Amino acid sequence: MDQDFVGLASDCQYWLQKLSAWDQSSTLETQKDTCLYLPQFQEFLRQMYEALKEMDSNTVMERFPTIGQLLAKTCSNQFILAYDESQKFLIWCLCCLINKEPQNSGDSKLNSWIWGLLSHILSTFRFDIKEIGLFSQGLGYEPVDYYPALLKNVVLSLVSKLRESHLNGFNTQRRMAPERVASLSQVCVPLVTLPDFEPLVEGMLTYHGHEPQEVLCPAFFEAVNEAFLLKKISLPTPAVVSLWLRHFPSLEKAMLHLFAKLISRERNSLRRIECFIKDSLLPQAACHPAIFRVVDEMFRCALLETDGAPEVLAATQVFTHCFVEALEKENKQLRFAFKTYFPYTSPSLATVLLQHPKDTPQECRLQLLQRISQMLREAVEDQACGSCVDPFESWFLFIHFGSWADMAAEQLLRSETEAPVAALLWLLAFYYRPLDSSQQRAQTMAKVEAVLSRLQLLMLSRSTPLSAKELQAATGEGSNADPTQSVCGQLIRHLFLNFLLWTPGGRTIAREAITLAPAGSSLL
Amino acid sequence: MEPLLQQLERFSEVLSVSGTAHVSTWGPETVRRALDWARYLRHVARRFGGHARIRSAVERRLRSLWGPEGRGLTSFQALGRGDVQLFLSLLRNRALGEAAGRALLLQLLPGAGPRDADAEELQARLARLARYRAALLLLREAGSPGGERPALAEDPVLLTQAQLLLGRLREAREAEAGDPGGWLGRVWTRAPRDHFLQVAAVALLQPLEKELGASGPETPGEESQLLVRWLLEQSEVLAAFCRHLPAELLTSVAGRHPALSRAYLGLLTDWGARLHYDLQKGTWVGAESQDVPWEELLLKFRSLWHAPPPLQEEVLAALESSRARGGDFEVPGLSVWTDLLLALRRGER
């Protein structure tokens, strides 16, 4: 416990020096510096309170002789007082210093001094006209009544100034000078989470000055992004998109925040994943190609780093699904061409893949699947083809759209007409094992074809109801499965699930069949 | 019901007393009890806020207490803020003794009062007030660097006060013994005059739904009507209003309120009639020093001249009829109305 106090005492010295430096001048530089340290200083105040509340006045003076000076300086620093909960901790610290049983005039003086500081931070202040406070008292209103309304009106007035400035292009009189907008953004850093402040945050994010360089300060973007991610502020989508377009680190942070949520220890259902993703506003923002590229790059890196972990794969697919939905809601005229989103692959492939499998009529599905299979095959296996596309890129593009692989598996088991088995098998084999050589892939396809024919036999000749054991034998899963079989395990499991879904009688044995399947299957 | 109403009355008194020197007799216990009382009433306000019958009974009683100062509790909503009001009133009061003062400050620590699950504690609301104060100070610097003042009609401080004025007028109107006209008169005598006029003008420019704390759309704009009527009745105030406020502001107000525009034009006509042509100086002058000079008159008329149609036509008609009555001269120097019209038309070209 004592060591904590030693640390705290030296912190006290450090912060006192910093506050003195900030006190000296009120330039943009000192403001920037103050804003940088706001969270740490708040933490310090909180720790100080925890320490002070256990002590009596004499101990306090012994341990922290400069605490009074520090708190006094804090009382005159508006940035600190405006930030989050700092004012709360400050008030508590001051109250802890009160001498509950003053013995002498020194003690009384201390109490009186604390009273003065507290009155000061809660007092009415005067705007530029002296009469204003008097008038409000004449009307009988107290600050607690009108400060919120005054703040709202100040905010609205600033918002309309920004809007006017934005609209009045070359009319320099009505324009807000860029330095003013910059200093306004700096001042807003501690205020971002204040209630009723959202209109101004939104106004600043959607404000485009007439300067080529960014006029808002980076600390402002960071503060807004942080507040948005922690849900302390809610902003309309265009404002958030503007934030991410203008400040790249914020976009990165938002993505990392999303990843952290999606790839947590607990298994998230697809619906929850979709919820998280939609809430983050990233799919909607990704309609802007610049943002999409960044987001896609992060998914790509994540897949590479985790060797194609199923969670990341699922996240990519759900994200793409939400993204396509958002894209469709966009105004058709303002929409970018698909190839802007996927520049590294052939535009025709991208266009085909972006279609909804569910939207295509039954008759066309097989054709489309065949076409996709063909295009991918060409891109991946045909070295003579001039495009030189990295197989990983083709695979990465393909896995965005998981529903095509699902459809391929379904068609393999359901289609009554002649299915292009080879094409579909190739597709599935590529989906699960992109790095195989042509030979390895052919072997996989052969094995899977064998399983497929066994399953189809099971489906066709039915006199007795299906049993789970039979199914297990057909797929070749089980404790004595040989190692080469487990290599295409995921593919087979996919077929297995489709079989359970689409075969009459499959659902009744589903539970039993699944329990017989090897544990740890991520698809299940 | 009646015990609650009596408590209300007594608390309202306590609140008024908290700002006077009488608190020197208060000890720590008194302070704590007063705050507990305030908390209890806040709890009542939150619990029965939805109860129409109880709410209206409380409001009726509060209105009957509505004193000439308009202080203390004035509405049901104010009950919810009674504890903060009491606290701040005591904090400002230098007459409060040391021991009582300590007891007051210690209320700021967490857990000082009883826990109320859904209500924000007193100390949290006071901390938020400190935050608002800091925010306003920061924004004041950023919003108007170098002390430049925004246009009066857009000034957020004036706007807020205008909203407060309208809010108080509504309360005065609804109170049984309320006398909105009388109350306005008292504010006029006590408040700085120019400032009051500016606030009144901004209040008259407010769109009808915007009044602070309006509970519903039942009587939109009634408060503005009240204000207009009072202005028209008080010739001294009206004269000051039309004289001392900037021309643009007056034109906007006249555009919104036809009754005022007629009165305004009437005053301008009266002022114009007091001017005579001084051959030596070659300009129109007034008989006495407090008469409105020619330049000012022209300025006001010019602003009206550029007003949107209904008002503009009214102004033109007034000027022309005055000119006709004055002899319908075309030549300058004989009728102030002729000269005004000439100057205005000249300015257009």
* Count of discrete alpha- or pi-helical segments spanning 4 or more residues of chain A: 29
Query: Which structural class should the secondary elements of chain B be placed in?
Result: mainly alpha
The biggest chain-chain interface is: A-B, 63 and 64 residues
Number of helices of chain B: 17
Q: What is the makeup of the main sheet of chain A?
A: none
Radius of gyration of chain B: 26 Å
Uncertain runs of chain B are 214-218
Kindly report how far apart the N and C termini of chain B lie. 72 Å
Helix and strand sequence of chain B: HHHHHHHHHHHHHHEEHHH
State the major sheet of chain B: 2 strands, antiparallel
- Beta percentage of chain B is under 5%
Shape type of chain B: elongated
Biggest sheet strand order of chain B reads: 1-2
Short description:
Chain A: Belongs to the multisubunit FA complex composed of FANCA, FANCB, FANCC, FANCE, FANCF, FANCG, FANCL/PHF9 and FANCM. This complex may also include HSP70. The complex is a heterodimer of chains A (524) and B (349). Chain A is built from 29 helices and no strands.
How would you describe this protein?
Chain A is mostly helical. Chain A has helices spanning 2-24, 28-52, 57-63, 67-75, 78-82, 86-97, 105-122, 131-139, 143-167, 178-188, 198-205, 218-229, 237-246, 248-262, 270-279, 282-285, 289-305, 310-329, 338-341, 347-353, 362-381, 391-400, 402-414, 421-432, 438-460, 468-475, 483-487, 489-502, 510-516. In chain A, α15 packs across α18 (310-329) and α23 (402-414) packs antiparallel against α24 (421-432). The longest helix of chain A has 25 residues, at 28-52. Residues 519-524 of chain A have low confidence and may be disordered. Chain B is elongated and about 85 Å long. Chain B folds into three domains: 1-143, no CATH class; 151-209 and 217-244, Serine Threonine Protein Phosphatase 5, Tetratricopeptide repeat (Alpha Horseshoe), CATH 1.25.40; 246-348, Serine Threonine Protein Phosphatase 5, Tetratricopeptide repeat (Alpha Horseshoe), CATH 1.25.40. Chain B is built from 17 helices and two strands. In chain B, β1 (275-278) and β2 form a beta hairpin. Chain B has helices at residues 2-17, 28-48, 52-65, 76-79, 82-92, 98-105, 122-143, 156-174, 180-190, 193-204, 222-233, 235-244, 247-256, 258-273, 294-305, 309-325, 336-348; strands at 275-278, 283-286. Chains A and B meet through α5, α6, α7, α8 and α9 of A and α5, α6, α7, α8 and α10 of B.
